């Protein structure tokens, strides 16, 4: 009787263990937990892509979207140096083109134009683009290798206005920081940046702004740990839901 009892206990234990292992295996199948997607995006996309990342996580339970924002040229340099990223969204096609085959299938998804930002209330009374070249005007712009800086240089060429900035920054975020703190009378950023900054700056539109339009491309990156998941994020930015988020923030169609 003792031997039969022992055998019964062994069989029962084995069955329970097998069932537990099967249950764990079943839970793991089709689960996206522990997956992470890294998205590099231009600083002007901070608010919109933060919202898109939250939506993507909601639609993909268990997936964590990590975002990194900065000047497009800086982000390109990081990608070229081997920084792990799955998706890149640039504020111009020029910087996307620098990646060559590292960008697997760039697609245009938005556009943007320049606007003048001043400290709240516009104390220097900046009224248009020509005022940025006025005597004593302390103006901050983006460095020329950054999309907003390149757009500024194009605008100067088209209008014949020669701005002598007090500083050149690496992203629109840095320009806004200088302006909102009162360190500059004005700065050139995008329309969407002025909108996102709210009461921290005052926006000054100028009619020449439509002469220079920046087109924003997005692409999955070669070597992504999960190319299919990366493409799904790109698809979200291109889809109606993504376009609404961008439109609400002031971006135009590509």
Automatic annotation (TrEMBL):
Ligand binding (molybdate): 44, 72, 172, 190
Species this protein is from: Nocardioides albertanoniae
Compartments, record wording: Cell membrane
Membrane topology note: Lipid-anchor
Highest taxon of source: Bacteria
UniProt name for this protein: Molybdate-binding protein ModA
InterPro entries: ModA, ModA/WtpA
Gene3D superfamilies: Periplasmic binding protein-like II
Family, as annotated: Belongs to the bacterial solute-binding protein ModA family.
Any one GO molecular-function label of the UniProt entry: molybdate ion binding
Reported function: Involved in the transport of molybdenum into the cell. Part of the binding-protein-dependent transport system ModABCD.
NCBIfam families per the UniProt record, alphabetical: modA (TIGR01256)
GO biological process: molybdate ion transport
Record's signal peptide: 1-30
Quaternary assembly: The complex is composed of two ATP-binding proteins (ModC), two transmembrane proteins (ModB) and a solute-binding protein (ModA).
Keywords (A to Z) from UniProt: Cell membrane, Membrane, Metal-binding, Molybdenum, Signal, Transport, Tungsten
GO cellular component terms given for this protein: plasma membrane
Pfam families per UniProt: SBP_bac_11 (PF13531)
């Amino acid at each position: 009787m003792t031997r039969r009892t022992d055998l019964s206990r062994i069989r029962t234990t084995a069955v329970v263990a097998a069932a537990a292992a099967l249950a764990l295996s079943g839970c793991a199948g089709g689960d996206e937990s522990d997956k992470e997607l890294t998205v590099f995006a231009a600083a002007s996309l901070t608010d919109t892509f933060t919202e898109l990342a939250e939506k993507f996580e909601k639609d993909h339970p268990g997936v964590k979207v990590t975002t990194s924002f900065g000047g497009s040229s800086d982000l390109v340099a990081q990608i070229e140096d081997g920084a792990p990223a799955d998706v890149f969204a640039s504020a111009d096609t020029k910087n996307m083109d620098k990646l060559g085959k590292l960008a697997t299938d760039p697609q245009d998804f938005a556009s943007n134009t320049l606007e003048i930002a001043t400290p709240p209330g516009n104390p220097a009374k900046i009224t248009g683009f020509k005022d940025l070249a006025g005597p004593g005007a302390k103006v901050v712009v983006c460095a020329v290798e950054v999309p907003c800086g390149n757009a500024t240089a194009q605008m100067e060429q088209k209008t014949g206005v020669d701005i002598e900035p007090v500083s050149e920054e690496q992203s629109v975020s840095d320009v806004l920081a200088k302006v909102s703190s009162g360190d500059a009378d004005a700065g050139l950023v995008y329309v969407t940046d002025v909108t996102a900054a709210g009461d921290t700056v005052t926006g000054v539109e100028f009619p020449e702004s439509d002469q220079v339009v920046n087109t924003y491309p997005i692409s999955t990156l070669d070597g992504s740990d999960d190319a299919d998941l990366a493409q799904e994020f790109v698809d979200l930015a291109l889809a109606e839901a993504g376009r609404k988020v961008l439109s609400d923030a002031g971006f135009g169609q590509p």
